[in-house]
């Protein structure tokens, strides 16, 4: 490792997860463990806050408070949905960032986030290189959607999958309480890729006779085929669990029942309504005995049902990102590489940010069954190790440990 | 205790909970531990299944399977929403039941359920008494809504409250991720009483500066006051958590945004839409930055976040119900009596079924704050002991233990 040339800046971006703070924790602990005399700073509210000089010095935080980061949901240092424009469109922003880096003697920057955040990290890295400013930038992956390419999986996904699959088992038990027909639609997150919905394929490994249909954005949604699927399924068993990604699209690539007028500040269409649309289809064509549950933000913050594997990997990704950035790498993302499923082991590796950003990793089509309404064993083998292990997040009052998020800002 | 004169029948009714099977478990284990040579039967799908002679002999179940009952959500023996009519309206049904009792030599009957189920148990008990049939009937309370009178609280409520309060903490963390204004509405169950929503008052004991509003069915919903509450709250802090019972009503007692055409088979109006209504009010009058989460059935089946206290009490209520029914009591419900909050202890006592059925226990008005949008410390003191303790419901595969519900039917 080269000698430490300056201070480290970390920041968080995009949607929170249960474990994004575990990566920040890993990075902070790793850097401070070196005793280089240099500082760790955190940008408050991601790149947007950095542009507003909202920088805090980790040394000013209580040490016990830092320890709580490892098991704390949400983005402790604050997040944003803010994309840097290309530098030839708005060089002023880049200059602002350079000035802040200079002011705080920042020579290392870790940006923790998803696809759009990797794009920002990539642009910054290219700009720094172009103008010859000596700072190394590494992207740290985070997304419950699991849709970053060049990595086996993304920190955050395992915990979301663990929560959703467990809720799935519980709901299957619940809809079997009564004798009467009961269809439950569970809408889960997944804007572009169906990983979370696909993860519930693991239910059949514990409930071999489960009556379940899974619909993913990877497959164009066909209303007529859907109704045939449902009719066939409830003939077999009058209890049925339907899992659907919020991001399913029709043959023209239009979101199913998306509200086309609302977009978020990244310019993405605001989803919601895929599950409701399916419920209406069933009500109008098959039966009234169909309920809907939209799991919403609980998927990205349910620390009470987090995957221990996910938390530990998130911390390692944070720690290794510090090692990589100090070793002089820049313009990379710290990815996860799985050795095998049988004896699961994951290590980190570097992949180029330019190969990651603006691309989406979908559920492989050959992991989806022929009827396009469930997943094959390959998906189950993939997900099983990622949801392993539990933490004990509870205090003696029966509630999950809570740290005031303002302590970090 | 008198000598055991015949067999025990147990059955489950109404909405499932995470712990209704723990009561069945307690009853079965207690009766069999006596070694009387008499049998335990279970009615499949409650009184409706009993009328169809769907009776299973617990001896035919695998012993390990019985052990899984203690930590199994949903109604293992099947539930129903079926109310017995008065016997002068439909004596035939009562005669059917008597014939089944005779056929299986049933002299003890425990009916596990909520308000409507206590009514059924009461009617049966009165009828048996009238015709001089020697069977003792006891109601075993169960409802996440916590709205049975004459008992300190109801088995099932503690686990629902534990899940909802923990999700509340996690969602509060989540909505604080971004800098921008963020209002989250969390709709929880509670048709007639607001106990589940009120339980989230405990959030302020761990998040002293939480910005939270709570709306209960106990207080007529006033749209104008609601909008003033919200405007005032977001001036103080642009993050706001609003918790609302599905059963809030207007000044005329009409459900807010209820779909008046849909009723369930108990004749209750099908709710849903209170949270959506509040969201629309805020969108139309204050801000677009408002999201909704409807926790739905997860509240009654999330065994992964069950209260250990609740599970243990549910088992005790089942065990003590056997003791009471064998001692010759009939026409009673086994209630819970709390000694004190400081050193929480709960024991069972008997209360008359006729004093329980057709009544609703509401959140006391003097536990609600003056502004009618939150709860006082008395509510927090009440809820705290009920959510204490955790179980480990997970298998080594990272998923909650699952028993095929068909094993019990």
Automatic annotation (TrEMBL), chains A, B:
- Pathway participation: Carbohydrate degradation; glycolysis; D-glyceraldehyde 3-phosphate and glycerone phosphate from D-glucose: step 3/4
Gene Ontology cellular component terms for the protein in this record: cytoplasm
- Provide the family line: Belongs to the phosphofructokinase type A (PFKA) family. PPi-dependent PFK group II subfamily. Clade 'B2' sub-subfamily.
Query: What name goes with this protein?
Result: Pyrophosphate--fructose 6-phosphate 1-phosphotransferase
Q: Which InterPro entries match?
A: ATP_PFK (IPR022953), PFKA (IPR050929), Phosphofructokinase_dom (IPR000023), PKF_sf (IPR035966), PPi-PFK (IPR011404)
| Compartments in which it is found | Cytoplasm
Q: Where is this site: Important for catalytic activity?
A: 142
What the entry lists under PANTHER family is as follows: ATP-DEPENDENT 6-PHOSPHOFRUCTOKINASE 1
What do we know about how this protein assembles, alone or with others? Answer: Homodimer.
Q: Which UniProt keywords apply?
A: Cytoplasm, Glycolysis, Kinase, Magnesium, Metal-binding, Transferase
Q: Which residues bind Mg(2+)?
A: 115
Where, by residue number, does substrate bind? 143-145, 189-191, 246
**Which reaction(s) does its UniProt entry say it catalyses?**
beta-D-fructose 6-phosphate + diphosphate = beta-D-fructose 1,6-bisphosphate + phosphate + H(+)
Locate the coiled-coil region(s) and give their ranges: none
The cofactor(s) it depends on are:
Mg(2+)
Query: What region holds the Phosphofructokinase domain?
Result: 8-302
What positions does the entry give for diphosphate binding?
15
Site entry: Important for catalytic activity and substrate specificity: 116
Q: Active site at which residues? A: 145 (proton acceptor)
Q: Which GO terms describe its biological process?
A: fructose 6-phosphate metabolic process
Single annotated GO MF? diphosphate-fructose-6-phosphate 1-phosphotransferase activity
Q: What is its EC number?
A: 2.7.1.90
Q: How is its activity regulated?
A: Non-allosteric.
């Amino acid at each position: 490792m080269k000698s430490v040339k300056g201070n480290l800046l970390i920041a968080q971006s995009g949607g929170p997860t249960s474990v994004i703070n575990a990566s920040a924790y890993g990075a902070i602990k790793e850097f401070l463990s070196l005793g280089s005399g240099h500082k760790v700073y955190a940008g408050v509210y991601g790149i947007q806050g950095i542009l507003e000089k909202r920088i805090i010095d980790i040394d000013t935080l209580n040490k016990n408070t830092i320890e709580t980061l490892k098991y704390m949901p949400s983005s402790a240092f604050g997040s944003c949905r803010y994309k840097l424009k290309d530098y030839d469109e708005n060089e002023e922003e880049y200059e602002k960032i350079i000035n802040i880096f200079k002011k705080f003697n920042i020579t290392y920057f870790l940006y923790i986030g998803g696809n759009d955040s990797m794009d920002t990290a990539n642009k910054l890295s290219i700009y720094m290189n172009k103008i010859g400013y000596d700072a190394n930038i590494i992207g740290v992956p985070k997304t419950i959607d699991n849709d970053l390419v060049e990595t086996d999986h993304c920190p955050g996904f395992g915990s979301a999958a663990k929560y959703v699959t467990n809720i799935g088992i519980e709901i299957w038990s619940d809809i079997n309480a009564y004798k009467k027909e009961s269809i439950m639609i569970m809408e889960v997150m997944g804007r572009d890729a169906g990983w979370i919905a696909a993860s519930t394929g693991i239910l059949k490994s514990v409930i071999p006779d489960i009556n379940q249909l899974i619909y993913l954005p990877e497959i164009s949604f066909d209303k007529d085929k859907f109704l045939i699927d449902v009719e066939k399924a409830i003939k077999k068993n009058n209890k049925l669990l339907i899992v659907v990604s919020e991001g399913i699209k029709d043959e023209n690539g239009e979101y199913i029942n998306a509200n086309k007028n609302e977009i978020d500040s990244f310019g993405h269409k605001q989803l919601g309504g895929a599950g409701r649309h399916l419920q209406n289809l069933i009500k109008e064509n098959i039966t009234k005995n169909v309920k809907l549950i939209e799991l919403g933000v609980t998927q990205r913050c349910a620390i009470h049902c987090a995957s221990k594997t996910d938390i530990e990997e998130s911390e390692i990704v944070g720690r290794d990102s510090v090692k990589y950035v100090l070793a002089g790498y820049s313009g990379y993302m710290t990815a996860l590489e799985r050795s095998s499923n049988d004896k699961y082991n994951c290590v980190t590796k570097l992949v180029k940010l330019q190969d990651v950003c603006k691309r989406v990793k979908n559920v492989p089509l050959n992991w989806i069954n022929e009827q396009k309404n469930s997943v094959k064993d390959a998906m189950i083998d993939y997900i099983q190790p990622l949801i392993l292990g539990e933490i004990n997040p509870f205090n003696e009052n029966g509630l999950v440990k809570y740290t005031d998020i303002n302590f970090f800002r």
